[in-house]
Design goal:
heterodimer, A: about 525 residues, mainly alpha, three-stranded antiparallel β-sheet, 23 helices, about 0% strand, B: about 550 residues, two-stranded antiparallel ribbon, 20 helices
Chain lengths: ~525, ~550
Amino acid sequence: MTEKLVQIAPEIALFAATCVVMIVGLWPNVRVRTLVTPISALALIIAGGLAINAQPNPEALFPELSRYAKTMIAGVGLLLLFLLPGVVDRDLEARAAIDERAFEPIRSTRAEFFAFFLFSLTGLMLCASADSLIWLFLALELTSLPTYIMVTISTRGTRSQEAGVKYFFLGAMGAAVFLYGFALIYGDTGATHLTDVAASFAERGIGPIGMAGLLMAMVGVSFKIAAVPMHFYTPDVYQGAHSSVSAMLAFVPKTAGFIALMLLAGLAGWGFGEHGGQLPDAVHITLWIVAAVTMTVGNVLATVQDSVKRMLAYSSVAHSGYMLVGLLAGPGDSFATSGIAAVLFYLLCYGVMNTGVFGVLASLEHEKGARDADSIDDIRGLCKTRPVLGWTLVVCTLSLLGFPPLLGFVGKIGLFTSGISNGQLGLVIVLGINSAIAAFYYLRIVCAAYLDPRDGETAEPDQAPFASRWVAATIAAVGVVVLLGLASPLMQASFEASQPASISATAASDAQPAAISRAD
Amino acid sequence: MTLWIVAMIAVPVVAGLMIALGREEQARGTALLASFVSAIPVLGGLLRFDYADAARFQGRGSLEWLSELGIRLSVGIDGVSLLLIALTALLGPICVGASWTAIKERKRSYYAWLLALQGAMIGVFAARDLMLFYVCFEFTLLPMFVLIRQYGSDPEMRIRAATKFFLYTFTGSLLTLAGLVYVAWVGAQQNSGVWSLDMGYLTGVAQGMPGTQQAWVLAALLAGFAVKVPLFPVHTWLPLAHTEAPTAGSVILAGVLLKLGTYGFFRFAMMMTPSAFAEHAPTLAVLAIVGIIYAGLICWVQTDVKKLVAYSSVSHLGFCVLGLLAANRTGVSGSVLYMLSHGLSTGALFLMIGFMYERYHTRDMRTVGGLASKMPVWATFMVFFTMASVGLPGLNGFPSELLCLIGTFQSDAEWVQAGEPGAEGGLLGPWYAAVAGIGMVVAAIYLLYMVGKICFGELREPKHHADHDHELPDDLTAREITVLVPLAIGCLFFGLYPKSLTDPIADSVDVAVRTVLTGESPERVAPPPAAEDHAEDSHDGEGGP
């Protein structure tokens, strides 16, 4: 029991902060009220500090995973947090600034908004430490449920409400599908503990019910990563939500989904499967098709968008497709050959560069926040009018494109090497062609921001009066360049995190018997 | 030597950054100064280079970057790289000089990208690590894209031209990346799982692959390099890009960027996949010849001078590729010579057209012509460089084109098998040369037709020309002449004494030819040691005596 609590110490820290934020956010005094952001930041820093020093969990499918994943989540979460101030309660605070008694706690949503953000990150961290199917399900839902509400309350327009409802219903459907899958897996193996399930699959093979369960679970989870055929909500939700929340949607559920997919695929093989470390054919073929279709659909549909947020939504779909290539490649004996490591590294890259792009959009607004900066006209000439924001957008977009030598390129190299090392040459070529298609729409963003002058007809967006947003975006842009120098240790860390239990068990000493052998 | 090479790449890039952060009025002057300063390390390299051992990659040095993927920042140059770098550095100040009055707004970004482009191009020629090569190769796209899209002539067309240029080359090179990573993976397997992207090592690895595998690697390489050259039928981006690009952009595009493609053929397609290269050389030669004649015929019907010269680039580079495909000493050295001389003469032609365009704002031969009476100095240079491009004996076009054709003529595969004494060996044969030779005749026709129309005959000027306010005098200014003279001297010198260029490249060419004809490099590079061991040699400086 105590060991488990130690394992989830970062989550506990975040949860404690959530409770504090809930209370502090409703404080009558505005000074105290605005403390929610620093408190949340502090909680994330503490959680990150706890995570980076965490011990590997020998009972998990990926013993080192939680340390890397939670540290990454805390880091990117901190960036995302800086985008949130001022998203909700703006009018209310403006009135309260004039007359302090005008503050009505019943109308305020600040406390919930920040608390839900921390809740979602707590859920995401719990995904990384999940060791049973039930835990995994609860963690996935804890990640997603707060985001439905955050989408809905993020702006005052009806679009957010529509987006929230759409997101909620489709999310509930996805959850139902993967929960049913989990139930079928339990039905086949009689176990919920991940290592027990894996051991059962390894010993008796995967029966038809178990296989159906795995496939349903994977398809259901692909809602979280916005992969085809569960991607339909993406453009509407990203566009309907405030840009700050869209930034979060592109990272948090996606990371949860990929961790869940890693665990599910880990159940089916890799190191102890019947195919000698290969995924079963049905899973393999399904994921192959999903990966190829996801990147193609995402990129092709992104080219025809005029709204930057919809473009980025489809690009988020496409990036999930890229990362699925790494997932298919599976683990390996070095970073270069391990697709899981490539996925984990790419998630970090994607989190940083995507936060940069959305951060720029969040820093711009029309009519005092009544309308988001969204169309491509809004960012036209940005490098001239607001150089810092403009260049942040250009650098992060080029990184999303995978333009060398930026961070996105280095991440993509990992996907290339691992894919080729594990016999996914065909998929890697699809990935290459897709990156070229992606150039078309990313270049539109770059050209609009950097090269095109403002046409003077459309209203120029104002800079949102919340400095932390553009600071976060700028940090992300700097990170896209600076992390190049730190890429080597990060790759090493992501490789360690990607080692499945049975492989690391052979390397580890006898003092820590591997979970699988114990189950035998 | 290593430091010289690093400086060759770093100085223009840093200068570009300084210009981008500096003041608008100072951009032009800083850029000129920077382009001269960037030439200093190149001069240093030219002086320090050991010409007796020109096939060896000198000044090897590397820095650990991503050891997980075996990626190091590693440089080193042989004779071919050295000369191409020298060409790049020579064109640097010339491009700045040519843009002096033509670029009137957003000067900072223009000159910054120009210098960044120069650094990236030198990086391509100096890289000894596949990923460094690839990063530089790809990075050249961005500056060129901006130069075309932002400073091109027609506000509508330049956007199309830039996008087409970017998408064509980006798609091709991503496939090349997949091929290169595949080779790296095979190399890692042979080296007990230790990844290395050292070009020397991976060259040996790729040579050891069986036939079909090599053919696929060759196909991946060609996807990137054939687009860059450009080879028929993937040449369609080039005329558009050239027509829209600003003068300096065209000069760099024709002068150096296209050579990245032929350099890729020389360094990768020939060295890495020699057997597949030998097997498919006839097919590729047919494409090259179709390009030579087809593009030549298109030139004939052009009315836009710049488009004419752009298509002539396609045609001329067909010869260049043909020489490489011949795979004998004559052909390959002719081809490398062509890379250099085409950079001089076609670059100069684009300058001439740019100077004319600055005065008349049109490039249409139907509205402008007979300029010899009004601009005698301009016309003299124009005729001179056209002659260089046609291949007049005594000018630089002649020896390179001739060597390419002679090499092709002499390279009959059957002669090699028969092992007749005196036969050069190679992959093509007289028929290829005979058909390609028609291209020379066509080139003479369209180039002489062009120079005849635009320089001689009755003076034709656009109707409203006299109404415009002119900053520039009728004929060339001292600045413009200064820009042209080094190129003219180069054309004349290398036309009369081509040995000065063929000597430094002879050894490298020899290695390439022997590689293609025997299927493997004369020397194999040992696999790099495992990650723990090579910590101390991270800056190995000048290797070997």
